[in-house]
Amino acid sequence: QLQVVESGGGLVQPGGSLRLSCATARFPLDHYAIGWFRQAPGKEREGVSCISGSGGGADYTANYTDSVKGRFTISRDNAKNTIYLEMNDLKPEDTGVYYCAIRVADYSCSTYTLADFGAWGQGTQVTVSS
Fold first, then answer.
1. Percent helix / strand / coil, the chain, rounded to 5
2. Tens digit of pLDDT for each residue in 68-86?
3. With bands split at pLDDT 50, 70 and 90, how would you rate the model's confidence at 57?
4. For tag attachment on the chain, is the N or C end more exposed, with fewer CB atoms within 10 Å?
5. Does the pLDDT value for residue 94 go beyond 80?
6. What is the DSSP letter of 32?
């Protein structure tokens, strides 16, 4: 079963930082667009950030939902087959389970439609609280 694995979550105070990782040893991630999503208690899963894949033949591009722009950074380390989400200046509203997934629709980050993504991981909990 194709699945990625998230790690790096934890409890952090407001204003703190965390770095999440998304990895797999089963297949190369560089071709694929990778999305980060989060789900807060009682809320729907929402897209947070996405980085495009090399399969589209263009340079990698990244996008972010408005609420995290300027605070979160998505990046790739192809040598480690890992995608990172660096999260700074964390706020209580960033609390939730964070998931990464492979975009199966294409190599872009044109939408965060959940059905366009697959190989979902189990998620990692991020709690921002004083």
1. 10, 40, 50
2. 999 999 999 999 999 999 9
3. confident
4. N
5. yes
6. S
